[in-house]
C-alpha cells in the first residue's frame, strides 16, 4: 500500500534526521580550554606572553613624553603632555591604560606561577622559568610603585572579588618585597655569557642585578647603587660580561641587537612584531607622517661642544648662527636638525634626497618649517634615535627597545660615587671618559678628569652626561623626579629652534602631580579601599 | 547578457497559449442532472478580461479556468451555482443560468482573507491574534535598491532601518524591529522559506522573487522561534507557481544614474586663509598667511577645484529580472533570474562597484497525498572596492587652494602639506583593489504528507552553503611632493602584496512537523508540533604573498623569503554551533469570532553548558472579532470589521559568543620573539559556565478596524517588553589584570506603539491607495551593574544609567556664548581655562559656581523615534503614480570632527561654508563660538573632548522622498497583438529630496550601531549621498 510505504519512508527519514542531529556539546577546536591547556610546553607560551607585557616601545615613548626632552605638539591629550603642562587629572587616559596593562602582565605571571606547580617538567628549567617570571613580576611592580606610589600588591593570582576589595600596600613594602625576590632568583638565572644565541633577549643575572640597582637609584640609596653596579662592573665572571659597544649610533640599529652593552631589551621582530611610533617623529621627507613627538631646544642645548664645554661656557666655540656644528656627536645620533646630513648619518636610505632642510628662509622641501600648527615639527627638530634604516621609518619597525644597558650602569656608578664624595680620576676614566670616548670625543678637555671641581660641579657634569647619553630612552623623567629638578625644567614656554615661532605650550611644575600619577579614578570608583587618592589629584 | 536571451526564448516557448487546466473527468454516472456547456467571459471593473479565473461548479470537482480573453466553458446544469474565484478578487457566485457574457469580478479591497505567513504556517488577516505585519510587495519590487533591507525602509511600522552609507561597496545599515530591548544584540531573526537565515541571506534575495514578507513583532507570533526571536522575526516566502496556472513570463528592467550629492562645501581659498589667520590671531598667535598670499589666492579663485569634488562621478545602476511561473495539474514552478549592477561613484581604476546575480527554482509537485517542494536559489555577489582608507576625509580636509592638485599635468600623484603621505585619488586609481565574491546557495526539500483530512506530516531538509572570498591586490602608489620634484616623496604599497581570504559557512536545518487544521461546524482547531535541529559551521583561511611579480601578480623567489608569505588555515578559524528544538502551537477559533492560541518552543543550544542549555519560551494570544457578534451586524455591514487582540509570551536571545562558557587559551605566533625569531604566546579569557539565555517578556494589545466598508483599515498596537538576564560584563578593576566574562545580569524595558492605515478608494475611473505607518518605541535601563556607567565616546560621553534610555548622549549643556568679560566674570567656568567673549558658556547644572563633571547632563538619544512611511499610489487608465515618503520624527545625533569644528585639531585645515555663523564682535548673535587657534584655551573650552557640549548634538529628524515613480501601462488590446499581456514603462527617482534641520550630513548618519553602542569612527566622513534617476520596464507574456 502506498500510504504504508510513505509512512515507512518518513519514519526512516525522521530517525535519520534525529540521529544526524548535531551534538550540543561543541567545545572550541582552535583554542585550548582549562581541560587541555596546561602542559610543560604550553606553560612556556604564558612566559612569552609575560615577556611581551613587561615593556614596550609605546611605554618607552610615553615615558619620554613626560620628560623635558620632547613635547607632543599634536596630541593635546597625550598623558605626558598633560603632565608637563600641569593639566593631568585622575581621569587622564595614560594613568588608566598603564595601570590596566601592568596588572594584565602581573596576571600572566601569577597565572603561570599558580599553574606551573602541577606540571611535570625539568626541575632546573622550572626554576629558571619561575625566576624569569618573577623578574617580570618584580619589574612591573617596581614600575607601578614608582609611578603610582602605594598600590595593591599580590603574591599570587586573585579573583575579581579580591580585586574589588583590596587596599593599597605601602610603596616601601612593595619595594622591599621586590628586592628580596630579586635576590632570591639571581642564582636561578643564567648569565649573559651562558645564553645560547637563540635565547638572546631572555632575562639574565645581569638584568636582575641592574633592576636591583635601579630600585636603589630611584631612592638615592648610594651605598646600594654602588654595591649593585659594582657587581656588574667588577664581577663580570659571575654576572655576565658587559662593555660599551663601539658605536653609539650603532647601538640603536637592528644589525647590532643583543650586543655586549645590552643588559635587557624589549624584543621586536622585523615584519612580524613591530612598533610604529617613529613615523610621527621624523621628517616628512623621510617617510614621516605628521609630526607629534619632537625634541625641544632645551635638549639640544644640553649637548656639549666637541671640546667638552657647555654651549654657554667660555671657550665653547658655540656659534648661534651655526649652532649644530662641532657638537657632541651624540646630538647627530639623537636629533635631526636643520641642515642635517642624512646621507652621512643614516645608512643610505633616501640617498640622494640631500640634507634635511627645515629653516623656512632656505628650505624648498616639504620639511620646511611652517609654524607650530602644521604637519611639520613645531620646534624645528625631529628624532633620529631609534630610526631604523632597515625599516625606513615606516609604520613597522622591528628594532628592539633597550630597557637596560651598560652605559647606564657606568653612569649610575659614577653618580653613586660622587654623591658619596668618592669620585676620582680613575672612576672618571672608567665611566664618563669611556662613555665620551665611545661617543666620539677626542678633545682632552672633554676626556680628562676635571680636577678641582667641587662635588656639586661634578654632579652637574654627571647629570648632564646622563641626560645626553640616555636621551630619548624613556629614563629622563625618573631622573628629574629623583633629582627633584621639576621646578627648574618644567617652566615657561617650550622653545624650538631659532627660526621657529612661539609654540604656545607652557610647561608647569605642580610638584605632587608631576612626580606621581593619580590612581585611576575609575579604579577608586570601583574599589573605595584604594582611597585616599594620591596628593594633588 | 546572452543567457537572458536564451532564457527568454525558452520562456516564449513555454508561454504559448496552451490549455493549462483540463476540466476534471466527468463525474461518475450516478449523477443524474443533464449537463450542457455553459460559456461566458470574466472581466474586471475596467472591462479588461481576467485570465486564470477559476470557475467551479459549486459542490463538485468540475470547473474550468478562463483563457486569454477571459472566456470559459464549463459543463453544468442550469440549477448549478458557479463560483468564480481568483487571488485578489472577491469571490462571486452566480447561477449557471444567469447572463455570463460579462461577469465582473471586483478586486478584493477587504483583504480580510489575505493569507499571512507566520512561523511554520499561515493564517489569515481576520484570524491573526498577534502583531504581524505583511509588507506590501509592491514596495519591494522594481525599486532601484541594492537589497531588500533598503527597500524595507519605511515600509512597515516600527521596522527601523538606518542606512549609514551610500557606498555600494560599504553598505551599512542598522536594522531594528520595535527599538532597543537589550544591550547585546537587537538584530531580528530572518527566516526565508522556513530556513533560519541571517541578514546577509536576506539581502541576497532578488526583491522581485518575494511573495510574502511578514514581520513578526510580538510574542504571540514570534515565540515559535523561541530563543532567537526577542527582536522580532522577518519571515520571507518566495514566489511559487500555482497549480493550473498558465505560464507567465515576466521581465523587469531598470536602469538609471546615481548622482552624488555634496552636502557640505569648503569656503573659497582666500576666505579659508583669512579665517585661518583670524583663528590664529584671535589667540595671540602669528598669522599664517601674508596679505600677498591671500591676494594670490583671491586672484586665482577661478582655478579652484576642491579635491573632494574630484573623487566622484555619476554612476550607472542597472537591474534586470526575468521570471516564469506556471503549473500543471500536479506540478507548479517558478524560475527566475536577476541581475543587479551598481557602479561606484568613485573615479577609480579598476572601476569599483557591486553586482548581484540571482537564480531561483521553486518547484512543487504532488504525488498522491504527498506534496514535495524543492527550492534552490543561487546568489552570486561580486564587489570590487578600494584598498585605500579615509578617502573622503583626506580630500575634504584639504583647503580649496588652487595650488593643491591631485595630479600633475603629466599624471603623477601629488601630495601636499596637509595630506602628505598619500592621496585619495592616487589610492583609488592605483590599480589596487579588493575583490569580494560571495556564493550563496540555498537548497531545501519540503515534503508534506496528508495523513488524514486536516492532519499533515511535514519534513524539511535545508541547507545554506556560503562561500565568501576576497582577493586583494596592492599596486605601488608613487607620490610626489610637487610638480617639480625629481624624487618621489614616498611610495605606498611598494611590497606588491596580494592576498586571498576564503570563508566557508554551512548552515543545515532539519525539521519534522505534524500539522493539524480542521473545522467542525463553527469550531476550528489548529495544532502543530515538531522538532528541529540547526547547525552552523564556519571555517576560513587566508594567504598573503608579498613581492609578487609586478605584472602577473604571481609569486617570485622573493615571495618565498621569510614572512613574505603568511596565512591561516581552516583549523585556525573553525567554529561550530548547534541548536535543537521542540516546538508547538495550539489554536482554537469559534465561529471566526473568538480566537485563542498557545505556542511554545523548547530550545537547547551548544553555546550553553549542559545544566543551562535548555530554555522554554511560551506564548498566549487571544482575539475577539467584535464585529462578528450578532449585535454588531449593522456596524459590520455599514462600517467594517473590528477586532481586539492581545498576546503575551516570553522570547529569548542567545547573543553570546560561541564559546563564552569556556575559559579559553588562544595562542599566537607573532606577539613576541627571542633573537628575532618568533615564539608562541598565549592569552586567556575567562569563561562563564553559568551563561544562559536572555529572556524577554512581551505583551501586546492591538485593534484591527475597518471603516468605510473596510476600504480604510486601521491597525493599532501597543507593546511592552521586559528583558532580563541580559548579558553584561561586570566591571572589574584593572587590578584583576583581565576582564570577567559576561553574565546574565541586566534588565531593560521597552515600550511603544505603532499604527498603520491602508486606504483604498476609487473615484470615477481613478484608483487611490494610501498606506501610512507611524511608530515609536522607547527603552529604559532597569538593572545595570554598578547602577551607572559613563563612557567617553569621542567628544561626548554616553551614559548607561538605571532609569534612563540606553546609551543616552551625555555632556555639558551649551548655554550660549559669552558676550562680555563681565559675563565671564560672573559665570561658572571650567577649571584652569581662560576664556574670552565669543567662547562657549556652559550651564552650571548644580549651581556651585564651577563647571566640572558634576554639571554634565543628558543631551539626547540616537535611536530614531516616531518613524513613519507614507505611500500614495494613484492609477488612472493606464497611468500610475507612486510617491513614497519616509522619515523620522525625533532623533539626536552626535557628530564630531571637522564637519563641526573648523580647522579641527590641526588635522583639517578647512572651514566649511556651514560653519561661517561664528561669533565675532559684529556677529554677536552667532550660534558657533569665535574662531580660535587649535590647542588654545578658547579652543579647549569650545571644542575639546574633555568639555564636550551639545554643540556636537544635531537634530536629525527628517522626511525624505524616498521613491517616486510615474508609469504608463500600454492598453492590453495593443500589447496583445504582439503577444504581451502587460507592458508598463516608467520613470523613477530615489532619495530625491530630504528635509532635515541639519544640512551638512545625511540625517541617517550615525555613529551608533543597531544596539545603540558607539561604534566610534566618525560618521560625518561618509561617502556622499546619491540620488537616483532612471527608467524602468515591466513586461509580462
Q: Tell me the strand percentage band of chain A.
A: under 5%
Quaternary status of these chains? heterodimer
Pick out the low-confidence regions of chain A: none
Which segments of chain B are poorly predicted (pLDDT under 50) over 5 or more consecutive residues?
Answer: 1-29
Q: What is the first-to-last residue Cα distance of chain B?
A: 20 Å
Which of globular, elongated, flat, extended, rod-shaped describes the shape of chain A?
A: globular
Widest sheet, order of strands of chain A: 2-4
For the largest beta-sheet of chain A, the strand count, sense and barrel status come to: 2 strands, antiparallel
The percent range for helix content of chain B is under 10%
Individual helix count of chain A: 22
Keywords:
heterodimer, A: 537 residues, mainly alpha, two-stranded antiparallel ribbon, globular, B: 22-stranded antiparallel β-barrel, 13 helices, 47% strand, disordered N terminus
Which helices and strands occur, and which strands form pairs?
The complex is a heterodimer of chains A (537) and B (1037).
Chain A: H1 2-19, E1 32-33, H2 40-54, H3 57-65, E2 70-72, H4 79-84, H5 93-116, H6 123-148, H7 160-163, H8 171-185, H9 205-217, H10 222-234, H11 236-239, E3 262-266, E4 293-295, H12 297-301, H13 329-334, E5 335-336, H14 342-345, E6 382-383, E7 401-405, H15 406-419, H16 425-439, H17 444-447, H18 455-469, H19 476-483, H20 486-489, E8 492-493, E9 506-507, H21 511-515, H22 521-526
Antiparallel strand pairs in A: 2-4, 3-7, 5-6, 8-9
Chain B: H1 2-15, E1 36-43, E2 54-57, E3 63-65, E4 71-76, E5 81-85, E6 92-95, E7 103-104, E8 115-118, E9 121-124, E10 132-134, H2 148-152, E11 159-165, E12 172-177, E13 189-192, E14 195-197, H3 199-203, E15 210-216, H4 219-222, E16 233-238, E17 248-261, H5 269-282, H6 291-299, E18 315-327, E19 331-343, E20 353-367, E21 370-385, H7 391-396, E22 413-414, H8 424-428, E23 433-452, E24 455-473, E25 477-480, E26 490-492, E27 498-520, E28 523-545, E29 565-568, H9 570-573, E30 575-590, E31 594-605, E32 614-624, H10 633-638, E33 642-653, E34 664-674, E35 677-685, E36 694-707, E37 712-728, E38 743-763, E39 766-783, E40 788-793, E41 796-801, E42 808-811, E43 814-817, H11 821-825, E44 829-830, E45 840-842, E46 850-851, E47 857-860, E48 865-876, E49 879-890, E50 892-894, H12 937-943, E51 953-955, E52 958-969, H13 972-976, E53 982-995, E54 1025-1036
Parallel strand pairs in B: 1-7, 13-16, 22-25, 44-46
Antiparallel strand pairs in B: 1-4, 2-3, 2-5, 5-6, 8-9, 10-15, 11-12, 13-14, 15-16, 17-18, 17-54, 18-19, 19-20, 20-21, 21-23, 23-24, 24-27, 25-26, 27-28, 28-29, 28-30, 30-31, 31-32, 32-33, 33-36, 34-35, 36-37, 37-38, 38-39, 39-48, 40-41, 41-42, 42-47, 43-45, 48-49, 49-52, 50-51, 52-53, 53-54
Helix pairs in contact in B: 5-6
Amino acid at each position: 500500500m502506498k500510504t504504508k510505504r510513505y509512512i515507512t519512508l518518513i519514519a526512516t527519514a525522521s530517525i535519520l534526521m534525529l540521529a544526524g542531529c548535531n551534538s550540543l556539546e561543541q567545545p572550541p577546536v582552535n583554542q585550548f580550554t582549562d581541560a587541555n591547556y596546561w602542559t610543560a610546553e604550553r606553560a612556556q607560551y604564558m612566559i612569552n606572553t609575560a615577556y611581551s607585557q613587561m615593556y614596550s616601545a609605546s611605554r618607552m615613548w610615553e615615558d619620554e613624553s613626560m620628560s623635558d626632552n620632547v613635547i607632543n605638539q599634536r596630541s593635546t591629550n597625550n598623558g605626558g603632555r598633560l603632565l608637563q603642562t600641569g593639566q593631568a587629572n585622575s581621569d587622564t587616559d595614560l594613568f588608566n591604560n598603564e595601570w590596566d596593562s601592568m596588572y594584565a602582565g602581573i596576571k600572566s605571571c601569577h597565572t603561570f606561577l599558580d599553574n606551573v606547580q602541577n606540571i611535570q617538567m625539568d626541575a632546573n628549567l622550572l626554576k629558571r622559568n619561575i625566576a624569569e617570571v618573577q623578574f617580570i613580576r618584580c619589574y612591573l611592580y617596581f614600575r607601578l610603585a614608582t609611578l603610582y606610589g602605594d598600590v595593591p600588591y599580590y603574591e599570587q593570582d586573585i579573583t575579581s572579588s579580591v580585586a574589588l576589595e583590596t587596599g593599597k600596600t605601602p610603596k616601601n613594602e612593595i619595594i622591599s618585597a621586590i628586592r628580596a625576590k630579586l635576590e632570591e632568583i639571581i642564582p636561578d638565572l643564567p648569565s649573559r655569557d651562558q645564553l645560547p644565541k637563540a635565547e638572546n633577549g631572555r632575562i639574565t643575572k645581569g638584568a636582575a642585578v641592574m633592576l636591583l640597582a635601579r630600585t636603589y637609584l630611584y631612592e638615592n640609596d648610594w651605598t646600594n647603587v654602588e654595591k649593585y653596579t659594582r657587581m656588574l662592573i667588577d664581577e663580570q665572571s659571575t654576572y655576565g660580561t658587559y662593555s660599551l659597544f663601539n658605536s653609539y649610533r650603532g647601538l640603536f640599529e637592528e644589525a647590532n641587537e643583543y650586543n655586549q652593552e645590552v643588559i635587557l631589551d624589549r624584543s621586536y621582530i622585523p615584519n612580524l612584531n613591530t612598533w610604529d611610533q617613529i613615523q610621527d617623529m621624523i621628517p616628512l621627507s623621510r617617510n614621516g607622517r605628521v609630526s607629534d613627538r619632537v625634541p625641544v631646544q632645551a635638549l639640544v642645548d644640553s649637548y656639549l661642544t666637541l671640546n667638552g664645554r657647555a654651549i654657554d661656557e667660555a671657550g665653547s666655540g658655540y656659534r648661534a648662527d651655526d649652532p649644530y656644528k662641532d657638537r657632541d656627536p651624540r646630538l647627530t645620533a639623537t636629533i635631526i636638525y636643520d641642515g642635517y646630513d642624512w646621507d652621512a648619518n643614516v645608512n643610505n636610505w633616501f640617498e640622494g634626497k640631500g640634507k634635511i632642510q627645515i629653516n623656512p628662509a632656505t628650505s624648498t622641501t616639504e620639511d620646511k618649517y611652517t609654524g607650530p600648527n602644521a604637519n611639520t615639527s613645531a620646534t624645528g627638530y625631529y628624532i633620529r634615535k631609534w630610526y631604523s634604516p632597515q625599516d625606513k621609518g615606516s609604520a613597522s619597525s622591528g628594532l628592539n627597545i633597550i630597557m637596560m644597558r651598560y652605559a647606564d650602569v657606568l653612569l649610575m656608578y659614577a653618580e653613586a660615587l660622587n654623591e658619596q664624595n668618592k669620585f676620582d680620576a680613575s672612576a672618571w676614566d672608567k665611566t664618563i671618559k669611556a662613555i665620551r670616548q665611545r661617543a666620539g670625543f677626542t678633545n682632552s678637555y672633554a676626556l680628562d678628569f676635571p680636577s678641582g671641581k667641587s662635588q656639586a660641579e661634578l654632579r652637574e657634569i654627571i647629570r648632564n652626561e646622563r641626560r645626553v647619553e640616555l636621551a630619548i630612552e624613556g629614563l629622563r623623567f625618573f631622573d628629574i623626579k629623583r633629582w627633584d629638578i621639576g621646578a627648574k625644567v618644567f617652566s615657561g614656554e617650550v622653545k624650538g629652534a631659532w627660526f621657529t615661532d612661539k609654540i604656545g605650550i607652557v610647561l608647569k611644575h605642580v610638584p605632587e602631580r608631576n612626580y606621581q600619577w593619580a590612581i585611576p579614578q575609575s579604579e577608586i570608583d570601583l574599589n573605595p579601599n584604594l582611597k585616599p587618592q594620591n596628593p594633588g589629584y | 547578457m546572452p543567457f537572458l536571451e536564451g532564457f527568454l526564448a525558452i520562456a516564449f516557448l513555454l508561454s504559448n497559449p496552451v490549455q493549462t487546466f483540463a476540466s476534471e473527468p466527468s463525474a461518475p454516472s450516478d449523477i443524474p442532472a443533464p449537463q450542457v456547456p455553459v460559456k461566458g467571459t470574466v472581466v474586471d471593473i475596467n472591462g479588461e478580461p481576467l485570465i486564470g479565473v477559476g470557475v467551479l461548479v459549486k459542490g463538485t470537482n468540475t470547473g474550468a479556468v478562463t483563457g486569454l480573453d477571459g472566456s470559459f466553458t464549463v459543463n453544468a446544469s442550469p440549477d448549478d451555482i458557479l463560483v468564480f474565484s481568483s487571488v485578489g478578487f472577491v469571490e462571486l457566485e452566480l447561477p449557471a443560468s444567469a447572463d455570463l457574457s460579462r461577469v465582473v469580478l471586483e478586486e478584493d479591497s477587504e483583504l480580510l482573507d489575505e493569507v499571512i505567513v507566520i512561523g511554520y504556517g499561515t493564517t489569515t488577516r481576520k484570524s491573526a491574534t498577534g502583531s504581524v505585519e505583511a509588507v506590501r510587495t509592491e514596495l519591494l519590487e522594481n525599486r532601484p535598491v541594492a537589497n531588500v533591507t533598503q527597500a524595507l525602509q519605511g515600509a512597515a511600522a516600527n521596522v527601523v532601518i538606518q542606512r549609514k552609507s551610500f557606498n555600494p561597496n560599504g553598505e551599512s545599515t542598522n536594522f531594528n524591529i520595535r527599538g532597543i530591548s537589550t544591550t547585546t544584540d537587537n538584530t531580528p531573526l530572518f527566516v526565508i522559506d522556513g530556513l533560519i537565515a541571517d541578514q546577509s541571506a536576506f539581502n541576497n534575495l532578488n526583491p522581485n522573487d518575494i511573495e510574502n514578507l511578514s514581520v513578526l513583532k510580538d510574542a504571540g507570533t514570534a515565540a515559535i522561534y523561541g530563543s532567537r526571536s526577542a527582536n522580532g522575526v522577518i519571515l520571507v516566502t518566495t514566489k511559487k507557481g500555482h497549480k493550473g496556472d498558465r505560464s507567465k513570463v515576466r521581465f523587469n528592467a531598470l536602469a538609471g544614474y546615481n548622482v552624488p550629492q555634496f552636502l557640505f562645501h569648503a569656503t573659497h581659498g582666500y576666505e579659508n586663509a583669512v579665517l585661518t589667520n583670524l583663528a590664529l590671531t584671535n589667540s595671540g598667535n602669528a598669522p599664517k598667511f601674508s596679505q600677498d598670499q591671500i591676494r594670490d589666492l583671491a586672484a586665482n579663485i577661478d582655478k579652484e577645484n576642491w579635491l573632494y569634488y574630484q573623487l566622484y562621478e555619476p554612476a550607472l545602476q542597472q537591474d534586470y529580472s526575468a521570471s516564469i511561473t506556471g503549473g500543471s495539474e500536479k506540478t507548479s514552478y517558478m524560475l527566475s533570474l536577476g541581475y543587479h549592477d551598481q557602479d561606484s561613484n568613485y573615479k577609480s581604476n579598476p572601476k569599483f562597484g557591486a553586482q548581484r546575480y540571482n537564480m531561483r527554482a521553486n518547484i512543487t509537485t504532488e504525488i498522491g497525498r504527498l506534496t514535495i517542494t524543492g527550492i534552490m536559489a543561487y546568489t552570486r555577489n561580486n564587489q570590487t572596492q578600494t584598498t585605500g582608507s579615509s578617502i573622503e576625509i583626506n580630500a575634504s580636509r584639504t583647503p580649496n587652494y588652487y595650488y593643491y592638485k591631485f595630479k600633475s599635468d603629466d599624471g603623477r600623484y601629488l601630495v601636499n602639506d596637509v595630506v602628505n603621505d598619500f592621496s585619495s585619488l592616487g589610492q583609488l586609481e592605483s590599480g589596487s583593489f579588493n575583490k569580494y565574491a560571495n556564493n550563496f546557495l540555498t537548497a531545501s526539500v519540503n515534503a508534506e504528507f496528508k495523513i488524514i483530512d486536516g492532519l499533515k506530516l511535514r519534513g524539511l531538509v535545508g541547507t545554506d552553503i556560503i562561500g565568501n572570498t576576497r582577493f586583494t591586490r596592492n599596486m605601488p602608489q608613487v607620490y610626489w611632493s610637487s610638480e617639480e620634484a625629481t624624487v618621489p616623496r614616498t611610495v605606498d604599497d611598494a611590497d606588491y602584496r596580494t592576498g586571498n581570504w576564503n570563508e566557508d559557512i554551512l548552515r543545515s536545518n532539519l525539521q519534522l512537523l505534524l500539522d493539524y487544521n480542521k473545522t467542525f461546524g463553527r469550531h476550528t482547531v489548529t495544532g502543530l508540533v515538531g522538532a528541529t535541529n540547526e547547525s552552523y559551521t564556519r571555517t576560513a583561511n587566508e594567504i598573503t604573498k608579498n613581492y609578487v611579480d609586478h605584472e602577473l601578480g604571481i609569486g617570485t623567489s622573493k615571495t618565498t623569503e621569510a614572512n613574505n608569505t603568511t596565512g591561516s588555515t581552516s583549523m585556525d578559524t573553525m567554529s561550530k554551533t548547534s541548536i535543537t528544538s521542540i516546538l508547538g502551537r495550539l489554536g482554537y477559533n469559534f465561529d471566526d469570532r473568538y480566537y485563542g492560541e498557545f505556542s511554545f518552543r523548547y530550545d537547547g543550544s551548544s553555546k550553553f553548558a549542559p545544566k543551562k542549555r535548555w530554555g522554554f519560551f511560551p506564548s498566549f494570544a487571544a482575539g475577539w472579532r467584535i464585529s462578528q457578534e450578532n449585535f454588531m451586524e449593522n456596524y459590520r455591514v455599514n462600517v467594517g470589521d473590528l477586532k481586539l487582540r492581545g498576546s503575551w509570551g516570553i522570547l529569548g536571545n542567545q547573543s553570546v559568543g560561541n564559546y563564552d562558557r569556556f575559559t579559553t587559551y588562544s595562542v599566537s605566533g607573532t606577539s613576541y620573539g627571542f633573537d628575532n625569531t618568533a615564539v608562541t604566546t598565549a592569552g586567556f579569557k575567562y569563561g562563564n559556565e553559568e551563561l544562559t539565555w536572555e529572556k524577554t517578556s512581551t505583551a501586546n494589545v492591538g485593534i484591527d478596524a475597518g471603516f468605510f466598508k473596510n476600504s480604510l483599515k486601521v491597525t493599532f498596537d501597543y507593546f511592552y517588553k521586559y528583558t532580563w538576564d541580559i548579558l553584561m560584563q561586570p566591571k572589574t578593576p584593572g587590578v584583576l589584570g583581565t576582564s570577567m566574562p559576561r553574565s546574565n545580569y541586566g534588565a531593560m524595558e521597552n515600550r511603544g506603539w505603532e499604527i498603520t492605515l491602508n486606504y483604498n478608494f476609487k473615484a470615477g475611473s481613478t484608483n487611490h491607495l494610501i498606506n501610512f505607518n507611524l511608530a515609536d518605541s522607547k527603552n529604559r535601563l532597569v538593572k545595570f551593574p554598578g547602577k551607572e556607567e559613563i563612557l567617553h565616546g569621542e567628544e561626548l560621553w554616553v551614559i548607561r544609567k538605571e532609569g534612563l534610555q540606553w546609551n543616552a548622549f551625555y555632556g555639558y549643556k551649551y548655554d550660549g556664548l559669552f558676550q562680555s568679560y563681565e559675563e565671564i566674570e560672573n559665570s561658572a567656568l571650567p577649571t584652569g581655562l581662560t576664556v574670552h567673549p565669543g567662547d562657549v558658556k556652559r550651564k552650571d547644572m548644580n549651581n556651585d559656581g564651577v563647571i566640572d563633571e558634576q554639571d554634565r547632563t543628558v543631551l539626547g538619544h540616537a535611536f530614531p523615534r516616531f518613524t513613519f512611511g507614507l505611500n500614495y499610489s494613484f492609477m488612472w487608465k493606464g497611468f500610475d503614480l507612486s510617491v513614497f515618503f519616509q522619515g523620522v520624527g525625533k532623533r539626536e545625533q552626535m557628530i564630531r570632527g571637522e564637519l563641526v569644528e573648523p580647522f579641527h585639531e590641526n588635522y583639517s585645515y578647512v572651514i566649511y561654508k556651514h560653519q561661517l555663523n561664528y561669533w565675532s564682535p559684529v556677529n554677536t548673535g552667532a550660534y558657533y563660538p569665535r574662531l580660535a587657534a587649535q590647542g588654545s584655551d578658547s579652543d579647549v573650552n569650545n571644542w575639546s573632548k574633555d568639555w564636550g557640549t551639545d554643540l556636537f548634538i544635531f537634530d536629525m529628524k527628517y522626511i525624505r522622498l524616498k521613491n517616486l515613480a510615474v508609469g504608463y501601462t500600454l492598453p492590453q488590446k495593443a500589447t496583445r497583438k504582439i503577444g504581451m499581456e502587460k507592458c508598463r514603462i516608467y520613470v523613477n527617482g530615489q532619495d530625491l529630496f530630504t528635509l532635515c534641520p541639519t544640512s551638512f550630513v545625511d540625517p541617517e548618519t550615525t555613529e551608533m550601531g543597531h544596539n545603540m553602542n558607539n561604534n566610534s569612527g566618525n560618521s560625518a566622513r561618509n561617502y556622499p549621498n546619491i540620488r537616483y534617476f532612471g527608467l524602468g520596464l515591466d513586461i509580462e507574456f
